[in-house]
Amino acid sequence: MIALHAGTAIAALLLGAGVLMLRKGTRFHKILGRSWVALMLAVALSSLWITRDGSFSWTFMGLAGAGLGALAPGRLLHLLLFA
59 and 83: one domain? Predict the structure, then answer.
């Protein structure tokens, strides 16, 4: 899983640099931009299965806690998603 995560991250990094060099708004720019989003989604999802000894790392637990905290009532994200 680490190889998939690292490979998609490197591809996203290179593709992102290419997207930034293209003229904004062209068809090719949009296609590459959408491809970059797909790669970043793969990077994010693959990170969820990177474990040590079969358990999640403290980094994952901290980020999951921060994400849940962002959804707490009264927070902007909660208002945008659930109001």
Answer: yes
pLDDT for the residue numbered 45: 86
Burial class (CB in 10 A: 0-12, 13-18, 19+), 8: buried
**CB-CB neighbours of 80 under 10 Å:** 8
Claim to verify: residue 1 and residue 40 sit in the same structural domain: yes
pTM over 0.85: no
- Alpha helices, DSSP H, located in the chain: 2-21, 27-47, 58-70, 76-82
Number of domains in the chain: 2
Task: For tokens 């970043």, name the residue.
Answer: 40
